[in-house]
Amino acid sequence: MSRVNSSERLILFTRYPEPGKTKTRLIPGLGPQGAADLQKRMTEHVMARTSSFISERRVDMEVRYEGGNRGMMEKWLGSHITYRSQGRGGLGTRMAQAFSQAFNQGKNRVVLIGSDCPGINEATVRAAFDLLGQFDLVLGPANDGGYYLIGLRQEETRLFDDVPWGTAAVIARTLESANQLGLRWVKVEPLDDVDRAKDIEVWEREAMRKEVSPHPAISIVIPTLNEEENLGAVLASTESNVDLEIIVVDGGSSDGTTGVAKSFGVRLLTTDAGRARQVNAGGLAARGDVLIFLHGDTRLPRGYEWHILDIMGKPGVVAGAFTLAIDGSEFGFRIIEMLANLRSRVFQMPYGDQGIFLRREVFRALGGFPDMVLMEDFVFMKGLRKRGKVAILPVAVKTSARRWRKLGILKTTLINQAILLGYFLGTNPERLARWYRRSKFRN
Fold it and tell me: Average pLDDT of 97-126?
């Protein structure tokens, strides 16, 4: 972790492990020395978990400490790191100062983490920096209502004003300020922190946990909004024999969608609603070599992973999608399937409900999906076609028939075609989206 002249900085807030002055809420159970030893081990654990990322990406690392002094910190953690005292004032003041100094020194992506969440790892920190490419604010929520990570790409000192630090309302108040400031935000996966005796098992579990594979073969990104009814079946269909990660990006569901995601142990991100914004958040956070973008009501076929890995290995193939099947027995669905699959094969233009997949580096080179309220998959596929062949697999995903049943097969089809025609005629996508929403609710 050598000092580098990077435009990115990772800041670690920690405390020198002096007995009696650190982890004081753990002293009744562990004693002064035991609490200090745990503080020491957790700090070293987080640094070890992030060291390879820092070296690989050449991120500027800074440790901000309380207690002790620079010499004591260097003796403890080494002289190859930049150390600064956290300074005076409350926690919000100290964090605001750390960000302010980083931006004044020319940094344009700054992530601050604490040492109390042993679940922090390379994937978490990497995702935070990558997400700052499209989001103004990245938050890592702690399960007690605070946060273990905050990332910014510009100075926003008002985020740290009037926050009830140490309470369960911290992250809610921070997001309230972010919305007032008009910031685009995303929350990465929630983690447990270690503050009290009952939290020791969190440390013991994470200390023994093996690091996840830094580069799984496939990452599946699933944007959701009130998909409690369908998500369980969708996640069950992702079962695979290859190294895999699943990322659910929720857009603010009011039902039990996030609970279903948590029950499957997937990575859970949250942002404000908007499918393009959600899939981009998942794509940027993903570690897989191949990304699959899957709707929250669309199930994958058995053996999907081998079909994908096989077709992506063929020369000239830049992306692909599955054949479309609709989960309904009506004859009209067979006509829709036939026309959609004909369009996909002839024009290489599959839509999002067909499970689009491509290599991660291609997704990033394209800058992700366009941030549009409608037609984002159509525009994205137009860009993909310019880079190579878009293959259509002979096996089918099965998508829910609910949207056709809600308005009727004919009416839904006519609305979809009218939206497409409006786009080609140059109608503003925002206007198309308003018309589309009105059409859906006029039934």
Answer: 95
